[in-house]
Amino acid sequence: MHSQWTLQDAKNRFSAVVNAACAGTPQVVTRRGKPAAVVLSMHDYEVFLERSKASAPQFTEFLLSMPAATEAEEASPRQNIALREVLF
How many CB atoms are closer than 10 A to CB 17? Predict the structure, then answer.
């Protein structure tokens, strides 16, 4: 069976595309000769979602992993910049 389908063939034989995906072979659908989509079984999709969740850090973990400011950065005063006049 195919593992790559043109968009027209995938539309005409959608049941075959889904059956092949459910059998465990991801089905690539192309548009104008370039890969455009992948049809996966529900099991493969759920595995993909679980792996992507496990590898992504939580937002708080991401913030806490940022490097701390050095002593020089903390000691340096802010620059006083003169603001320009704005006419309304």
Answer: 20
At 78, is the secondary structure helix, strand, or coil?
Answer: coil
Identify the domain containing residue 16 by its residue range: 4-58
pLDDT tens sequence across 23-80: 999 999 999 999 999 999 999 999 999 888 777 778 888 888 888 877 766 677 777 8
**pTM of the predicted protein model:** 0.59
Question: Where do the DSSP E strands lie in the chain?
Answer: 4-6, 27-31, 34-39
User: Residue 83: inside a domain, yes or no?
Assistant: no
The Cα-based distances of 62 to 13, 48, 73, 83 in angstroms read: 45, 22, 21, 35
